[in-house]
């Protein structure tokens, strides 16, 4: 496309939720029922989500962030505990560790997958006598769960999964979320499925699920109203969110297939471009491409400006490492993570979501392959 045409073209968003008449009908039903909270939609959504993953228990929350906090607390992580995690993630991951009174221990990531490096995890777990490993399946690609599960088991540490970006992702057929003592999902609108704001804790441990249910509901006993078992929170999901989730979940696998088809088209089209590295999907892994993230070892800034000129949505997830942010530096964090620092300087995410039309896909491929460098 000629630059003057590109400037007048419709802009292609980096993310866009798909909302059908089904979501509208279900939300309208909730509004007309007058039961906006504590109704059957949330319980049904929890059951449907647990069934989808093949896990025994799911507890809905108000967001992925609140799900993380409650998952850690319900799993018994708190004051004095060290939790090994990645510096290359959304800030909510390690904020939750701090909010429950524990201490994040950041370790570097693998340059190919952008996920936490198992060898670095093993070293840190041993050195810090860590109570838990909190892994993040970044961009929709699962972490090396075989290695992480083994490290956790040998050290007697808990494995907790942040699956906020990875609904439906799998390792050798097993869905992420089913490996950890507790795992969380986010339903923010940019995720593979949405409820507006919303989150979910999943677990195979009935005691963790029971504690999570009490914590999200102001610490109130499940047996008696206004009887408080613990100092809890109001982190409940609304019926409106639950109703949207019930309409979205049956379409998740289809949307993930579209994301994968888009990603495969990009990877084929970009194979000959020597100035960038497309994302990888190791054998046995099922990537759900919440983001299609390429690496550009130099000239990233020029590429970002070029995408803006062509009205192609893009984001840098993430330009800074969490422990290097002012909030974390003030708490004494910092440190050096050479691989993650390099990734932060090189990554760019392109639109890959299922709302892209064939024309959008053609425009993105055309623009990227013609980037003059
Ligand atoms: C890796 C990761 N963890 C946690 C969260 C927090 O989820 P939420 O935005 O629903 O609070 C997000 C998403 O925004 C995320 O990407």
Automatic annotation (TrEMBL):
Molecular-function GO terms, alphabetical: pyridoxal phosphate binding; transaminase activity
InterPro entries documented for this protein: DegT/StrS_aminotransferase, PyrdxlP-dep_Trfase, PyrdxlP-dep_Trfase_major, PyrdxlP-dep_Trfase_small
Keyword Transport included in the entry's annotation: no
GO biological process: polysaccharide biosynthetic process
PANTHER family per the UniProt record, alphabetical: DTDP-4-AMINO-4,6-DIDEOXYGALACTOSE TRANSAMINASE, TRANSAMINASE
Keyword Transferase among record annotations: yes
Keywords associated with the record: Aminotransferase, Pyridoxal phosphate, Transferase
Family classification: Belongs to the DegT/DnrJ/EryC1 family.
Record-annotated active site: 191
Species this protein is from: Candidatus Segetimicrobium genomatis
Modification N6-(pyridoxal phosphate)lysine occurs at: 191
Protein name: DegT/DnrJ/EryC1/StrS aminotransferase family protein
């Amino acid at each position: 496309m000629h630059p003057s045409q590109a400037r007048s073209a419709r802009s292609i968003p980096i993310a866009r939720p798909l909302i059908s008449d089904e979501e509208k009908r279900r939300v309208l039903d909730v509004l007309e029922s007058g039961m906006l909270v504590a109704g059957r939609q949330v319980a049904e959504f929890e059951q449907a989500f647990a069934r989808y993953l093949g896990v025994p228990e799911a507890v809905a929350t108000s967001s992925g962030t609140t799900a993380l906090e409650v998952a850690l607390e319900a799993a018994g992580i708190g004051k004095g505990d060290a939790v090994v995690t990645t510096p290359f993630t959304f800030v909510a991951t390690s904020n939750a560790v701090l909010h429950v009174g524990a201490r994040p221990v950041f370790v570097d990531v693998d340059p190919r997958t952008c996920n936490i490096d198992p060898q670095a995890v093993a070293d840190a777990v041993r050195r810090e006598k860590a109570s838990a490993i909190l892994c993040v399946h970044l961009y929709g690609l699962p972490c090396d769960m075989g290695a992480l599960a083994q490290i956790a088991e040998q050290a007697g540490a808990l494995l907790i999964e942040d699956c906020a970006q990875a609904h439906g992702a799998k390792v050798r057929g097993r869905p992420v979320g089913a490996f950890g003592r507790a795992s969380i999902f986010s339903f923010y609108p940019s995720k593979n499925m949405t409820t507006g704001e919303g989150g979910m804790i999943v677990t195979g441990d009935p005691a963790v699920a029971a504690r999570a249910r009490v914590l999200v509901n102001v610490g109130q006993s499940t047996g008696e109203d206004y009887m408080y078992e613990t100092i809890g929170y109001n982190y409940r999901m609304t019926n409106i969110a639950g109703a949207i989730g019930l309409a979205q979940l049956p379409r998740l696998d289809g949307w993930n297939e579209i994301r994968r088809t888009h990603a495969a088209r990009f990877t084929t089209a970009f194979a000959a471009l020597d100035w960038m590295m497309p994302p990888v999907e190791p054998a046995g892994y099922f990537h759900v491409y919440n983001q299609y993230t390429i690496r550009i070892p130099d000239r990233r800034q020029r590429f970002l400006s070029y995408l803006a000129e062509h009205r192609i949505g893009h984001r840098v997830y993430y330009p800074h490492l969490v422990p290097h942010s002012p909030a974390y530096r003030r708490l004494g964090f910092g440190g050096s993570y050479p691989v993650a620092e390099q990734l932060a300087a090189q990554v760019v995410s392109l639109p890959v979501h299922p709302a892209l039309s064939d024309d959008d896909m053609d425009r993105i491929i055309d623009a990227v392959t013609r980037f003059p460098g």
